[in-house]
Amino acid sequence: SGYLALCSSNLPDTTLSPDQDEQANDHFNTVLYTGNGSSGHAITGVGFQPDWVWIKERNGATNHGLHDSSRVSSGNEAILYSNDTDAESTGGAYLSSFDSDGFTVNNNASGNNSSDTYVAWNWKANGGTTSSNTNGDITSTVQVNNTAGFSLILYTGFGEAVKTVGHGLSQAPEMILFKTRGSGNWFVYHKDTGNTGYTFLNANTAFTGDANFLNNTTPSSTLITLGTSSAANAESTNYVAYAFHSVEGYSKMGKYTGNASTDGTFVYTGFRPAFIMGKRTDTANYWYMIDSARDTFNEVENILDASATTAEANYSSEKYDFLSNGFKLRQTG
After folding, report:
1. pTM for this one?
2. Of 307, 108, 117, which is closest to residue 206 (Cα–Cα)?
3. For 245, which of 37, 96, 149, 221 could close a Cys bridge (C-beta 3.0–4.6 Å)?
4. Beta strands at 302-305 and 287-291: parallel, antiparallel or unpaired
5. Exposure on the CB side of residue 138, measured as CA atoms within 13 A
6. Which 3 state secondary structure label does DSSP give 20?
7. Helix, strand, or coil here: 117?
8. Which residues of the chain have pLDDT under 70?
């Protein structure tokens, strides 16, 4: 069976250069917290001001709340759900600010129910400072962290013909999550499933071929080519896209093949992972999310599903080891 994965590190590694060690500590981090059911609950310990915050309740069935500092208008931050097709919801009822060492949440099920436990995965872009990118046919608004290979992209679709949009990164993105800011699916491009289609983030379906998604064109070092599909280029429709490329010693986009053994596949990343999100591609299956904050030692087994509201679960057929240079599957699933 084929799988794809996004891996990030936030653990110091003595084999890294000083620059790489900075990346591992200052551009991605996972924090755990308990909700208090009130507005203005400050969550600290991230270590930097995050620009993309992905929050999930661990002990209950609630939506995954995705927040970013580019989609803020008149002080109102907008939430999207990775497990749903809903349009973004604004009004400040969810995450009220991105802070120097974390973020502040208000009273809501997706981020601050009283006594409920939460995990928040945090990525740094550019401190909320966006810029206009005119490299493509469509002008985009980007917020870029080239050191960490991460870009936040806002743009409006054209719909009638193949168009290009600038992503702001210094090299071609290897994984991109697209979502209309209105009602619609999440579409995922990954270099290892190719430019001929997509998989959904909000569903457990297998890879779907669609020549009109990216016009069968691999993203370049400056541009993403959009086909006529409404997945990423409906006329006059506003989109957000999160783009990543691998950075040595910090992040890795890749694929692996399972062997259905308890002595499972070893996947080389070149660093000790702190966060992994992966999905089976040859048939329907869920997006698994694991990290070193919820499991501080091997085997790693507390799993969340990006495509569902389900609570954190421990599955006997799904266990992993985080190793100094990658990860290893430890069960048959």
Report:
1. 0.94
2. 307
3. 149
4. antiparallel
5. 31
6. helix
7. strand
8. 1-24, 73-76, 91-92
The strand order across the sheet containing 320-323 reads: 266-268, 326-329, 320-323
pLDDT digits (tens, 9 = 90+) for 130-179: 999 999 999 999 999 999 999 999 999 998 788 999 999 999 999 999 99
Q: Give just the sign of the alpha carbon dihedral 176, 278, 58, 321.
A: negative
Cis geometry, peptide bond prior to residue 160 (ω within 30 degrees of 0): no
Task: Confirm if 84 and 66 have CB atoms less than 8 A apart.
Answer: no
Query: What distance in Å separates the CA atoms of residue 277 and residue 5, rounded to the nearest whole number?
Result: 6
- d(CA 53, CA 98) in angstroms, rounded, equals 9
Residue corresponding to tokens 């990525």: 123
pLDDT value for 4: 56
Q: Are 37 and 108 in contact (CB under 8 A)?
A: no
Q: Give the Cα separation of 43 and 23 in Å (integer).
A: 22
Distance between CA atoms of 242 and 300, rounded to whole angstroms? 26
Is residue 126 within 8 A of residue 68, CB to CB? The reply is: no
